[in-house]
Amino acid sequence: MIPLLSLFLSLLAASVIAKDSALPTLSDVTAAEAFIEASEVVVIGFFETPSEETFGYKELVEAAKTVKHIPVALCSDKESWAKLSIVSDTIAIFRKADNHQDNLQLSETKKVEADGLARFITMNELRYITEYNQVTAVGLFQSEVKAHLLLFINRGSGDYKELKDRLGALAPEFVGEFLFVLVHGVKSNEKSLGYFGLTSRDLPRVGIYDRNSDMKWLMPEGEISTERVREFCQSLILGNLKEVKQAGEPDPKTEL
């Protein structure tokens, strides 16, 4: 029994270990990669010496309490730092939706506050299907992925969960090519709906917005099936949408 106990303890030490801080610690590359792979969005605080006196440490612990739905951990292992291209104390966001790593290098930051850090995390919290609002809009438009597949839908509709889950399951097929975005038919999104010539009474509908060309299209009315949405996305990738009439009234100065 003792050798088995020793083996268990050694394996535990090589993975995610709970320290005195409120956050778990990633002790090696295997643990760091497993942590990143386990969720759509995660945050890791890379601190050489994580302590109350370390710049940004306390603020990250406090921010983590605000963004409880996002896994947050700490890492001081230099092999992990090298693997993930970290050169100094950094707070990094890893997300699968566009296979992106967003680094906040603390040596280049004059001031860090818990509220501002929580906003930074939330702003960059892009998922396989991201709800569109004033905060996530910043991350959506800063992403290197320029094409958005948009599901316009009323939150209380009977097919809301089914359609959201259906498109969320399709999104991983288009990582690096599309961001899948959920746009609710609410007053705060009237401008976005109007940009596509829609009102809340017209929903649900599916559209594409291409930031590279500042062009937009609606998928023809009908069933919002996985296959139809997949073909709609492929039509942009193959360049077939450029000859199709755009949705709504063209206004290049208007943003989503």
How would you characterize the overall build of this protein?
This protein is α/β, with parallel strands linked by helices and 256 residues long. Helix content is 33%, strand content 21%. It has helices spanning 2-13, 29-38, 57-66, 78-83, 114-123, 136-142, 160-170, 190-195, 226-237, and strands spanning 16-18, 24-26, 41-46, 72-75, 90-95, 100-105, 129-131, 147-153, 178-184, 205-210, 215-218. The strands form two sheets. Strands 1-2-4-3-5-6 form a six-stranded mixed β-sheet, sandwiched between helices. Helix 3 (57-66) crosses helix 5 (114-123). It is elongated, with a radius of gyration of 21 Å. Residues 1-18 form the signal peptide. Keywords: Signal. InterPro entries: Thioredoxin-like_sf. Belongs to the protein disulfide isomerase family. This is Endoplasmic reticulum resident protein 27-like.
Task: Write a short abstract of this structure.
33% of the residues lie in helices and 21% in strands. It is built from 9 helices and 11 strands. The strands form 2 sheets. Strands 1-2-4-3-5-6 form a 6-stranded mixed sheet, with helices on both faces.
